[in-house]
Each structure stands twice: as structure tokens, then as C-alpha cells.
Design goal:
Length: 90
């Protein structure tokens, strides 16, 4: 949703968007934690194994890529929070 579209929404619709955004933030935090756990488990298990094959790190790139995409993805929160602040809907 673009910034100009946010200005056209009513107050009730903005509150609904804010609730959706909060759910999205919680899901992203849980997904990042889960992927981080997989990454840490993989590195620890690799370091404790007797066979130190570096090819094991290739699958460990997948969680890193997903975490990066979640952190650097489109940031809709700034625009929505700006509109909410202008309308005093915090």
C-alpha cells in the first residue's frame, strides 16, 4: 500500500491496517527466531561433529537469506505510523 493510498483511508481502516501490521511484525519476529535457531543448531552440530566438511555450510545459507529478506524487505510501517501520528490514532 502506497503512502497516497494511506491518506485516502478512513480512521477505522487505518486502525485495521495497524492491527494487521502488528500481526505481521509478530510473525516476522517468530520466523526470524525460528530461522536463527536452525542456523545456530546447524553451526553447533557442525562444530561438534568429527567430520568437518565445509559443504555443510551451503544449506546454512538458506536461513541467512530468508532472515536478510525479512529484515530488508519493504518497510510499510514508517508510512503507516506517519499517517496515524498525523491523525492522532496512536
Amino acid at each position: 500500500m502506497e503512502k497516497k493510498d494511506l491518506y485516502q483511508l478512513t480512521d477505522e481502516e487505518l486502525v485495521v491496517e495497524k492491527k494487521k501490521l502488528n500481526k505481521s511484525k509478530i510473525f516476522n519476529a517468530a520466523a526470524i527466531g525460528f530461522l536463527g535457531g536452525i542456523l545456530i543448531f546447524g553451526i553447533v552440530s557442525w562444530s561438534l561433529s568429527s567430520d568437518k566438511n565445509l559443504g555443510f555450510f551451503i544449506p546454512m545459507v538458506i536461513p541467512i537469506v530468508f532472515i536478510y529478506r525479512m529484515l530488508k524487505g519493504p518497510n510499510k510501517t514508517k508510512d503507516l505510523e506517519e499517517v496515524l501520528k498525523e491523525r492522532n490514532l496512536n
